[in-house]
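re: ur question from earlier - yeah i can do the single chain one, its not a big deal. heres the input i used so u can compare w yours
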Amino acid sequence: MRRLRGLLLSDPAIVFATILYGTVSLISALFDKTGAIPIRIARAWGRFLLAVSGVKVRVEGLEHIDPSGSYIFVSNHLSYMDTPVVLSKVPVQFRFLAKRGLFQIPLLGTHLRQAGHIPVPREDPRAAVKTMQVAAETVANKKISLLIFPEGGRSHDGQLRPFKEGAVYIAIKAGVPLVPMTLLGTRDVLPYGAGVVLPGEVTLRVLPPIDTSGLTLKDRGKVTEEIRELILKQLSGATVDASSSRVSP
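and the output i got, formated as tokens:
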């Protein structure tokens, strides 16, 4: 019944909503160069997707962040439902680092550019470094946040993959805190390779921010691994208290 509900109700509604909200967002971006309105529309899109899919989200740790603050959010990546979950539940002005190929898709690419999201050329290391520098400048100058999935893509088997260092690089250069987040259960409602969203319950757990003041780019490998360990502990069922989420220079 869950799969039938997804096929007959959730999936058609998601496709329709994505086209509708995407079109409205694209139009709004023509008049709003800050990207604030497209993000509000994207947040509404995320809430609609969760509601029509029967996905309930339990959020823990929002008290750790200031809605007016600027952060680099770092999360594991299990499913295409990860983005709607974060969009709908984290109340900050954030943008995404997205694969450059997405920016080449008609309509979607235009929307991503106008909303202020940043393309990542993964196949070109030099260009990728320049992208991280631009991202850091954008975060620092516009006082916005970034959401980054440091595994570089969705996990095929649910296991946490090695983390790339870009998120820590950007946070140190921009001088903003890093916020580790853990997503639990999104793979169950939309597994890798599946085309049907199933009802269910997921958890978004926000850990205490990590202060990057005093850190240098030489620390990025160590900090990246420590963040991965924090998230891995959450995925394995261990608890992490506030004091354990601070990284020393």
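The chain is about 45% helix and 15% strand. not sure if urs matches, ping me
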